[in-house]
Amino acid sequence: MRFANEALVGDLVLYIENNLKTIISLDELSQHLCLSKYHLHRLIKSLAGITLMTYVRGRKLTSSLTELLETNLKIIDIANEYCFEYEQTYLRAFKRQFGISPSAYRRERCELDVVNKLDTSVLIDVSKGLFIKPRYILRPEFHLMGLQTFIINSENKENLSANKFARMFYFNERYKIKGCIKENIYYGLCWYGDNYEYGNFYIPSVEIENAVREQGTFICKTIPTSMYVVFRYIGFHGPEELNIRNLEEIYYYINYKWGPTTVYKRSGQYHFEMLDTKRCSDQYCEADIYIPIET
């Protein structure tokens, strides 16, 4: 199976663009890319926010706008050219996508929001996957509860101690926490120590409804309202393999390429990784890295 990387996504985008006027099926794309339908679906949903076949249909409809504006072709002929089974199928899809009929668009020549080609320039390859250049979000205050340990960076690289501690928490301890909002959402909270380069506190955790002082050996951390820069990692491996060896290249990019050149300054003494296990499998993983920034 191929790795998740920019070349794979670029191959997919190019194949779709070259075949907009043919019938494109999920089976065909899977065969062309030597990648399972499951991985294709998850990859594009993560990158584009829509399913693969919704993206294909959106690109067909967007491309058909040129024929509507620059030719006198009948609408049924345009529908046939882009391999819509029936004219009515094209008409319904067009109205659903753009909120206007093809004939009205041809007449009014108005501005529309379109489905652009996926921009592979926002993707950066790493050894076992890829990550997406950042998006920016504001997240209100929330509360995490988990187990805390101190991780020495050199030992973590050698023994994957943070990953082992996280797996112990996820499989054995998280169910004991009361007031958990979503058990499928895992947080890996890194709270910086006095010497960030030497080691930091690591708190595998889940979100809880209300702040509490403690629950047995579990500690609570209130994360303040903040603006975040968010990097998404995608890999064709299980979430159990998410460790510093897979993420080191991303953190290098954040600290030494993005950090020195961005207009934003980091704030707070922490960052966290968030993973939705419902979006993962034993052969697929995606995780978001949240870095708090000043507004």
TrEMBL record:
<dbReference type="InterPro" id="IPR018060">
    <property type="entry name" value="HTH_AraC"/>
</dbReference>
<dbReference type="InterPro" id="IPR050959">
    <property type="entry name" value="MarA-like"/>
</dbReference>
<dbReference type="Pfam" id="PF14526">
    <property type="entry name" value="Cass2"/>
</dbReference>
<keyword id="KW-0238">DNA-binding</keyword>
<keyword id="KW-0804">Transcription</keyword>
<dbReference type="GO" id="GO:0003700">
    <property type="term" value="F:DNA-binding transcription factor activity"/>
</dbReference>
<dbReference type="Pfam" id="PF12833">
    <property type="entry name" value="HTH_18"/>
</dbReference>
<keyword id="KW-0805">Transcription regulation</keyword>
<feature type="domain" description="HTH araC/xylS-type">
    <location>
        <begin position="10"/>
        <end position="108"/>
    </location>
</feature>
<dbReference type="InterPro" id="IPR011256">
    <property type="entry name" value="Reg_factor_effector_dom_sf"/>
</dbReference>
<dbReference type="GO" id="GO:0043565">
    <property type="term" value="F:sequence-specific DNA binding"/>
</dbReference>
<dbReference type="InterPro" id="IPR029441">
    <property type="entry name" value="Cass2"/>
</dbReference>
<protein>
    <recommendedName>
        <fullName>HTH araC/xylS-type domain-containing protein</fullName>
    </recommendedName>
</protein>
<dbReference type="InterPro" id="IPR009057">
    <property type="entry name" value="Homeodomain-like_sf"/>
</dbReference>
